[in-house]
Amino acid sequence: MALAERVSFCATNLNTADRLVASLDSIDVLGRAVGVPYEVVVADGPSTDGARELLEHRQRQRADFRLVRHAERRRGAGRRLAFEASSGAVVIPFDTSITYAAAYGGLLRAYLQLRTDRMLFSEICALSRRSIEEVGGWRDLIGAEDVDLYGPLIERFGLIAWPVALRESQSARMGAYARQMRYVQGSSVRRLLRMYATQRDQVIGANYRVRDLMALNAAKPPARRAALWGWFTFAAIGARFRPIRPRKAARNNYLILRDAILESLLRGDYKSLAWDGPPPQLLLTPAEIGYLRRASSAWGRVESRDPPLYGVK
Question: Could you tell me the pTM of the whole model?
Fold first, then answer.
């Protein structure tokens, strides 16, 4: 596999005017570090807080920047449109609410030098265009659009994991509610419907069963868990009527991703990357640890490792 002639940094965006410029500036730093020509493609649809105007200004100023205007309010649609408008042999999805540490440029450059179709997993990921196309690309989901793609892609092409969150990386990553509320204007009913649609699409994208979601929320108080069971069940029923169906697999996509990360760390795949970064460590919540302890085929070997391969967040 030849070294990529171009890489594409791709994002979907809505109403991130307060974070957008710093995020895009940090992507330019990474782009200049990868050692090959790069482009930045952002699908915006449709921002009302001034972000669209910031993106239009950047497009007028930069030949390597492309804005895709669209009216969709589904993150998966934005990911797909940005990908389709890009041309790089390697695609680097990013989040316009995060200012990425410059050191990630070295990680991306090391990944490109491997000339592989395996996915790179870190705070910023990288995937070959060929692997994305072969599994069908991003689907028009409101939530869980990335794990929906990563599950089948990892099973077919594999993964190299170097999970690390650098202190210099200023993350304004939003929770699920805050992220989705950027896509909704109007009444509380509309906001509730948006959150329901997000949960429904999470069932589809991650291929969750209700018991998976309950296990990942095991730390909640009993009364809260009873309400969550009803909420998750209602979402699972709604998922059955969505034209987009879960991708068939023996495990859910969350478990496919987490097991692939853990197996990669156990093998020491990160040692193939010529990057002088900090030791990899996967950060997990206590509920995730409990779930993986029961469901993951790799967890027993992970817990016996010293130093530990994971940390608690």
Answer: 0.92
Q: Does residue 181 have a pLDDT over 70?
A: no
Q: What single string gives the DSSP state of each residue in the chain?
A: -PPPS-EEEEEEESS-HHHHHHHHHHHHHHHHHSSS-EEEEEEE----SSHHHHHHHHHHH-TTEEEEE-----HHHHHHHHHHH---SEEEE--TTEE--TTHHHHHHHHHHH--SSEEESSS-BEEHHHHHHTT---S-SS-HHHHHHHHHHHHH-EEE-----TTSEE-PPPHHHHHHTT--S-HHHHHHHHHHHHHHHHHHHT--HHHHHHTTTTS-HHHHHHHHHHHHHHHHHHTTSSSPPPP-SS-HHHHHHHHHHHHHHHTGGGGS----PPP-EEE-HHHHHHHHHH-SSHHHHHT-SS-SEEE-
**pLDDT tens-place string over residues 184-210:** 556 688 888 989 999 999 999 999 999
Q: Given this model, what pLDDT does residue 306 score? A: 87
CATH class in words for 1-173+251-313: alpha beta
Q: Where are the domains of the chain?
A: 1-173+251-313, 176-239
